[in-house]
Amino acid sequence: MPYDGPVIDCDVHHTWPDLEHIVSRLPADARERLRERAFRLRPGTAYPGAGGANKRLDSYGPEGEPPGSSLAMAQRQLFDPFKVERAVMTFDVGHEASEPNPYLARQLARAMNDWSIETWLEAGDERVRGAVIVNTHVPEDAAAEIRRVGGHPRMAQVLLAGAGLGMPLGHPAYHAIYDAAQEVGLPIAIHVGGETAYQLSAGAQPISRLDYYGVTGQPVVHHLLSLIVHGVFERFRALNAIIVEAGVAWLPWLVTKLDAAYADLRRETPWVKRLPSEYLRERVGLTTQPLELTPAAGQLTDYLSVVPGVEDMLCFASDYPHWDADELRFIGRRIPVEWHSRLFYENACRLYGWEASTEARRALEAAA
User: Fold this and answer.
1) How far from 158 is each of 181, 196, 214, 222, 255, CA to CA, in Å?
2) Domains parsed from the chain with CATH numbers
């Protein structure tokens, strides 16, 4: 059955129309360096290593403006037709803030956040929500950036697009980031794609699009595992995490493996006081895109149901304007009707700490 209620879209990619939108917001000493390396910031490009374009062709502007650079286009193609009440803007992954030079990465993150606030969050559309992009090379710098702009009323999350220290994101070296995120009341989001600047897979770098798509989830799974192993959810009791654009089919494997090993491995991690599945169910959300395909829709549901409470973890994400974005109608056909209100709206509200709007409450009650 189709879903016709309010929608929260947890992954909508926005980008600048041209490089000068970012360069002009940088300190003078960084501007020429960025102009010389413009290829790293060119909007609308493919993920590094993936090859080819990765955006839907009808999302380009009439003058060739890059996909994701027009709020009006997003309103027309996504917000309006699919009853999107809130859309979380996630840059074009945000891998620019994973620039290996930590000083330049700090300046880029600041410029990107200022651009996002000025041109999207304050453009007059109440549906738009933002993400604080941070550079993770120097967690103290990231924490300062979170405290600088994280209190903006339209900010929804702290976006981590890469592990700049070469260690998984649960490592204590990153705790300053989580302390700041918890202080300003924002969850963290870990997005596939930023790792292209570092270690993308357990083996070598991918050489084709199929190769790339097959391994992009590996770093994210390791980051999530490390959040549990290093006790992040115990240390930061009010911090939630959202895993973005990594799919969901790997979750049963991870949960069953961790829960089975919990009793034996606790001697190494006494600060992990509960079953890993409990932390995941209560504190972690997974966005649906790219939702894995099975020969029959019910097979995916049966598999995911191995995880207790999985219906409370899934959050809708379109991944607009990528060519392989998932439309609401597609997801609605693949996920049980009984999960729809949580998937498309309620789970995101809980993870982001949002109150449901009056209109959404009425619609959800009517649907129930």
Assistant:
1) 7, 19, 26, 19, 25
2) 7-367 (3.20.20.140)
